[in-house]
Amino acid sequence: MIQSIWGKLSGAGIGLALGGPIGALLGGVAGHVLIDREGAPFGKPPRDVLFTMGLVALAAKMAKADGVVVDVEVKAFEQIVEVPENEHPRVQRLFELAMQTSDGFESYARQIGEAFKEEPALLEDVLDGLFHIAKADEAVHEAEYIYLKNVATIFSFSETDFERIAARHVTRADDPYLILKADRSMSDDELKRHYRRTVAENHPDREIARGLPPEAVKIATERLATINAAWERIAAERNLR
Which of 167, 125, 175, 123 minimizes the C-alpha distance to 145? Predict the structure, then answer.
């Protein structure tokens, strides 16, 4: 993982063109200008780099929106992404540059949304990661919540989908059913089948099989734990075995 991300951001590896605002952000850190042009010899941008740098950019813009100290955001980011000790200054620099760029968060969100438009599950991973970072100070503040909802809209998630994702991170009375995207009118057997299907759809092994970066797998693992916790609450409420 360390080499797959950070090795690509140094030396010749930086030549892998991402383009757009995220490419410009990386170029600012490396002292290079990343070029995105049709027919470029680099091929498709590496998904792991795009995912990770997109998470950095959106997290930094979120920090700017709510005024949270960058150090807190960086530490939360590093709980998701494995960062070698010698790369901590570069991560800090990435956050600082992203906060200072004239590009709004919308441009970063659009680039990520377009890159992963055929993989909504991966876009959901990005939102889960951002929620994790937003909770760094033990609360998701109103400005952060609005910001995340706007990002979700750019990602083409419906309001219902966003509320379901948010329920994994923000406590509400209906959390268990909302997290499972289940209806309280479901019978016990229907709920059991729905729960098993939800687990299968969100299992980290699916992320691994799809060749997604380790960050996405880690986020999926945390999401599955939340789903299982929601099921345990429902099972206890209904006295299910």
Answer: 167
Do residues 120 and 33 lie in contact, with contact meaning Cβ atoms separated by under 8 Å? Answer: no
- Give Cα separations from 137 to 58, 71, 89, 133, 182 (angstroms): 17, 11, 21, 9, 30
Per-residue confidence (pLDDT) for residue 15, from 0 to 100: 36
The DSSP element (H or E) to which 223 belongs, if any, is helix 214-238
Per-residue pLDDT tens digits for 107-154: 999 999 998 999 898 899 999 999 988 888 777 888 889 999 999 999
Sorted by sequence, the CB contacts under 8 Å of residue 214 that are 6+ apart come out as: 1, 4, 48, 82
**pTM of the complete model:** 0.68
**Is the pLDDT confidence value at 99 over 90?**
no
Determine the number of helices (DSSP H) and then strands (DSSP E) in the chain: 13, 0
| Cβ atoms of residues 227 and 180 within 8 Å | yes
CA distance 21 to 30: 14
Q: Which residue has the higher pLDDT, 173 or 123?
A: 123
Residue 152: is it exposed, middle or buried by C-beta count within 10 angstroms (0-12/13-18/19+)? buried
Choose among 57, 212, 59: nearest CA to 128.
Answer: 59
Question: Is the distance from CB of 140 to CB of 134 less than 8 angstroms?
Answer: yes
Query: How far, in Å, CA of 150 to CA of 139, rounded?
Result: 18
